[in-house]
Amino acid sequence: MTPSLRLLFYYLWVAPHVLQVIILVLLFRRGIFSKFPVFTAYTAFSLCKFVALFIVSHFHNAQATYFKSYALAVGVYASLRFGIICEIFANVFANHAALHNVQKPLFRWTAVSFLIVAFSLAVYTNPSNTDLTWFNLHLLERSANIVLCGLLLSLFLFSSYLRLTWTRFVFGMALGLGILCSLELATTAMRAQVGYSAHVTLDLFDMAVYHCCVLIWLFYLLTPERRQPSIPDNVTESDLEAWNHELESLLTQ
Description:
The structure is a single chain. By secondary structure, the chain is mainly α. It has one domain (3-251). The protein is 78% helix and 0% strand. It has helices at residues 3-29, 37-57, 63-94, 103-123, 132-162, 168-194, 199-222, 237-251. The radius of gyration is 20 Å and the shape is globular.
């Protein structure tokens, strides 16, 4: 790795976590952490993971330790991201009593559907010139990102169709997480096939994407909230209740 490339590598590795310190401070100063505890935990865990991996990476012959730490972080990250999506679902549906009963079935059946897709793709994916251990890890990352992207996509489509209210910060959380998971989905699929042959390029791309997503979260956290009417003038509460009944019937079949 050339000196300029190494400098870029360390900038993209360190800078997003410096911004996350600011995000964490703002979450606590504004009392938002109590409303979004999982997102707060995700931000704090990201900082802890960065410090741990940064230290481990500077030890000689610590590749095995680094891999174990990274693999553990992947599992925790996936769990926290599912928790963030649950918080987003709950917040979007919170102000719509007529659709309250749709939230859990929509989340459950969307997750099950995309889990089947992820499992089917995993079964028919074969390693090609790559380390099997890293292949399996990236395959798990890809499967988790498929489900996460499916959940976010379904929420965006559903809320767009019914014109549901999003607060700015919740929209920013969903937008940043959606970009992060979708682009990670692409890179993990590539990593599962190419292995170490292009890992520097893919690492830089992953870190650049993460940097952009942290900037999105910070931007939407700093901008003031502007609420929009959640129900258009030509849609009544009875219409929403009827749609709720039909959706419940569909999702429980």
